[in-house]
């Protein structure tokens, strides 16, 4: 291998060590330091040692995957005490180059040690062969760029006749990151890449690849008009340059009901394709259009996207959870039951029908929201590992709920728009169907006129909470409600169940 090819390879190997994990890569920490975060072992085998300096006890562990158990690497110790220690890494001889990563942890911090033995042999392979291959091995793959997800780091998909493979990070011609656009790679181009294979959440990928060659597609989308259509529909136009033998257009099956081709006009290498979209009575929708051509022996393609605004569907949380993953917009209202991440706005939202996870609310930290507040959001139905969640959520409105004692509530004026979160011990249940009951806190007692399963319950959906939850006299219950009066006597009206604790 020539020297000019060795440099990009080492850059790629080092980049591989920055894996898809939330733990930060660090080199100088107060809690733990290492004499070197890079360890090289000769391909003939041998040992290399580093010095570990820690303020507390430490552990060392190999990073393994299902495809790469790193059984070839031996660590002299997996634990150590505060102070200075020597840690050795040993490997037998290798036919091909290989890499590994070791994590040294102490005091809640992590140091990463990158291990490389020999010089990895680059193997030309199909996508299917890469997926079946071991992690850490470097592959050369040729295919068509079929989708680009990130134009800063260069995250995209390469596809050949055996399947599609995710590219996580693309280096520029100088081996630098975050310069993907300088390569000029577009959907439809034929491309050859080299990079190490790894596995993330069970999916194979090549990491921080070097682009060896690009063959530009003979069809290219130069520009579009009306890429975002209004709810009432309209015309979308794509302007193409085609150097092949004619242009064919592919509309995905799930978009054919609302999108159609109205005309195709060609003059020389310039082609104009117009589409007509009908009015949208559902949520936001969109699709990817593919334009294809051929030179007689090879096929080429290019893509563009179109979207259309839609109505926002107001649904219960149970209906939202049952809906398919899509770009459709939903409006949900409920009570915040917990906030796992207050910085980014990751929370759980509950109404009378069920509960769902909200993966981030835009500018949540500035909203001043808390557990118990009633909020209305608009977002898309998404999923993580098959579990429903709200994505791209935007806060529409909120009702602040104030935690108060019964004594505090009794001093407040009647106001149907002001909500309190009140906790008390149930002293009697007047109506089990609707949850009419008395609760007491210290010397203060108040009547709860209706304790319903959750926000938004109407009609028969208000019934049955007491039996469903097994609530009884003596239990401690927390409700959200406005203060009202009946015949001059204070009460909590139309309460929303939040939680309860059974009596011992």
How is this fold's topology laid out?
Elements: H1 3-16, E1 32-34, E2 38-41, E3 46-54, E4 58-62, E5 74-75, E6 79-80, E7 83-91, E8 98-106, E9 109-117, E10 123-124, H2 127-132, E11 138-150, E12 155-160, E13 163-171, E14 190-200, E15 203-215, E16 219-225, E17 228-229, E18 234-242, E19 248-250, E20 259-267, E21 270-277, E22 285-294, E23 299-308, E24 313-314, H3 317-322, E25 329-341, E26 346-351, E27 354-358, E28 374-384, E29 387-399, E30 401-403, H4 406-410, E31 415-431, E32 436-441, E33 444-452, H5 465-469, E34 476-486, E35 489-501
Parallel strand pairs: 2-9, 10-11, 13-15, 17-23, 24-25, 27-29, 30-31, 33-35
Antiparallel strand pairs: 1-3, 3-7, 4-6, 4-8, 5-7, 8-9, 11-12, 11-14, 12-13, 14-15, 16-18, 18-21, 19-22, 20-21, 22-23, 25-26, 25-28, 26-27, 28-29, 31-32, 31-34, 32-33, 34-35
Kindly describe this structure.
The chain is mainly β and 504 residues long. It has five domains: 3-117, Immunoglobulin-like, CATH 2.60.40.10; 123-215, OB fold (Dihydrolipoamide Acetyltransferase, E2P) (Beta Barrel), CATH 2.40.50.200; 223-306, Sandwich (Immunoglobulin-like); 313-399, Beta Barrel (OB fold (Dihydrolipoamide Acetyltransferase, E2P)), CATH 2.40.50.200; 403-501, OB fold (Dihydrolipoamide Acetyltransferase, E2P), CATH 2.40.50.200. 7% of the residues lie in helices and 54% in strands. The strands form seven sheets. Strands 2-9-8-4-6 form a five-stranded mixed β-sheet, with no helix packed on it. Strands 11-12-13-15-14 form a five-stranded mixed beta barrel. Strand 12 (155-160) and strand 13 (163-171) form a beta hairpin.
């Amino acid at each position: 291998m020539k020297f000019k090819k060795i440099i990009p390879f080492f850059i790629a190997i080092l980049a591989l060590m920055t894996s898809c994990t939330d733990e930060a890569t660090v080199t100088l920490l107060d809690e733990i330091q290492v004499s070197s975060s890079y360890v090289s072992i000769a391909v003939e085998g041998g040992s290399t040692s580093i010095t570990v300096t820690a303020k507390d006890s430490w552990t060392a562990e190999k990073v393994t995957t299902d495809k790469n158990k790193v059984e070839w690497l031996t660590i002299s110790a997996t634990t150590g005490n505060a102070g200075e220690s020597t840690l050795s890494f040993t490997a037998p001889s290798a036919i091909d180059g290989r890499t590994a990563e070791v994590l040294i942890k102490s005091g809640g911090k992590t140091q990463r040690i990158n291990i490389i033995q020999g010089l990895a042999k680059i193997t030309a392979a199909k996508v299917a062969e890469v997926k079946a291959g071991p992690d850490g091995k470097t592959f050369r793959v040729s295919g068509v760029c079929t989708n680009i997800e990130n134009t800063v780091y260069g995250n995209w998909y390469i596809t050949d006749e055996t399947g599609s493979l995710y590219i996580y990070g693309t280096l520029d011609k100088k081996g630098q990151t975050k310069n993907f656009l300088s390569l000029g790679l577009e959907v439809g181009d034929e491309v050859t890449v080299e990079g190490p294979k790894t596995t993330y959440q069970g999916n194979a990928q090549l990491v921080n690849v070097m682009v060896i060659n690009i063959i530009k597609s003979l069809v290219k989308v130069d520009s579009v008009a009306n890429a975002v259509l209004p709810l009432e529909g309209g015309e979308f136009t794509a302007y193409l340059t085609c150097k092949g033998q004619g242009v064919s257009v592919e509309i995905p099956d799930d978009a054919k009901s609302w999108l159609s081709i109205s005309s195709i006009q060609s003059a020389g290498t310039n082609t104009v394709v117009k589409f007509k979209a009908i009015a949208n009575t559902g949520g936001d929708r969109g699709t990817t259009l593919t334009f294809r051509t051929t030179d007689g022996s090879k096929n080429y393609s290019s893509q563009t996207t179109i979207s259309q605004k839609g109505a926002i569907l107001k649904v219960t949380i149970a209906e939202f959870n049952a809906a398919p993953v899509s770009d459709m917009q939903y409006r949900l209202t409920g009570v915040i039951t917990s906030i796992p991440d207050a910085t980014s706005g990751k929370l759980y939202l509950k109404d009378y029908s069920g509960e769902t996870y909200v993966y981030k609310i835009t500018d949540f930290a500035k909203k001043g929201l808390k557990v118990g507040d009633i909020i209305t959001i608009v977002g898309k139905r998404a999923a993580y590992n098959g579990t429903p969640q709200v994505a791209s959520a935007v806060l529409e409105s909120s009702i602040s709920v104030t935690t108060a004692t019964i004594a505090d509530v009794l001093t407040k004026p009647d106001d149907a728009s002001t909500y309190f979160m009140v906790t008390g011990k149930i002293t009697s249940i007047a109506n089990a169907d609707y949850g009419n009951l008395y609760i007491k806190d210290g010397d203060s007692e108040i009547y709860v006129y209706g304790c319903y399963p959750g926000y938004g319950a109407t009609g028969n959906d208000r019934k049955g909470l007491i039996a469903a939850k097994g609530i009884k006299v003596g239990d401690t219950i927390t409700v959200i409600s406005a203060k009202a009066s009946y015949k001059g006597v204070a009460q909590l009206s139309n309460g929303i169940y939040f939680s309860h604790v059974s009596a011992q």
